[in-house]
């Protein structure tokens, strides 16, 4: 789990120091910066997939997708999957026991994340 930790820091002159321990992905950077700029009046734009690390609705997870593989990390679990092989597994769980129900939900959760990221890529594709 610690291997995947990467601190993120920004320096903005005149801004009071703000810290958060939330888990986030690179898709959360733009909404977080916009939230810092807009302050109390911040509203997440509809076309943003990520969310500000300072918002109450931040999902506190990270998703990484490369080709057909996907990696998912939250405060309790690390899971990987492959869309081509339909193989999904939990690599780590904070609890020593992973319920059959949680394990059964994992493929659907990761498949949904793959679908969302694929749609995002298709809809934002650069056309020559």
Order of neighbouring strands in the sheet with most strands: 1-2-3-4
SSE-based structural type: alpha+beta
The number of distinct β-strands equals 4
H/E topology pattern: HEEEEH
Radius of gyration, whole Å: 17 Å
Helix content: 25-40%
The number of helical segments is: 2
User: What global shape is seen?
Assistant: globular
Mean pLDDT: 79
Topology overview:
Blueprint: H1 29-38, E1 61-66, E2 69-74, E3 77-82, E4 87-93, H2 100-123
Antiparallel strand pairs: 1-2, 2-3, 3-4
What are the salient characteristics of this protein?
27% helix, alpha+beta, 128 residues, 4 strands, 20% strand, four-stranded antiparallel beta sheet
Describe the protein.
The chain has 128 residues and is of the alpha+beta class. It has helices at 29-38, 100-123; strands at 61-66, 69-74, 77-82, 87-93. A four-stranded antiparallel beta sheet has the order 1-2-3-4, covered by helices on one side. The longest helix has 24 residues, at 100-123.
């Amino acid at each position: 789990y610690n291997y995947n930790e990467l601190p993120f820091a920004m320096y903005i002159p005149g801004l009071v120091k703000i810290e958060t321990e939330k888990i986030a992905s690179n898709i959360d950077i733009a909404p977080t910066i916009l939230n810092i700029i807009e302050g109390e009046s911040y509203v997440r734009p509809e076309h943003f997939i990520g969310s500000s690390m300072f918002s109450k609705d931040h999902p506190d997870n990270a998703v990484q997708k490369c080709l057909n593989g996907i990696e998912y990390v939250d405060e309790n679990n690390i899971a990987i999957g492959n869309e081509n092989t339909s193989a999904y597994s939990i690599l780590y769980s904070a609890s020593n026991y992973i319920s059959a129900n949680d394990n059964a939900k994992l493929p659907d959760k990761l498949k949904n994340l793959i679908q969302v990221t694929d749609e995002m890529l298709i809809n934002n594709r650069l056309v020559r």
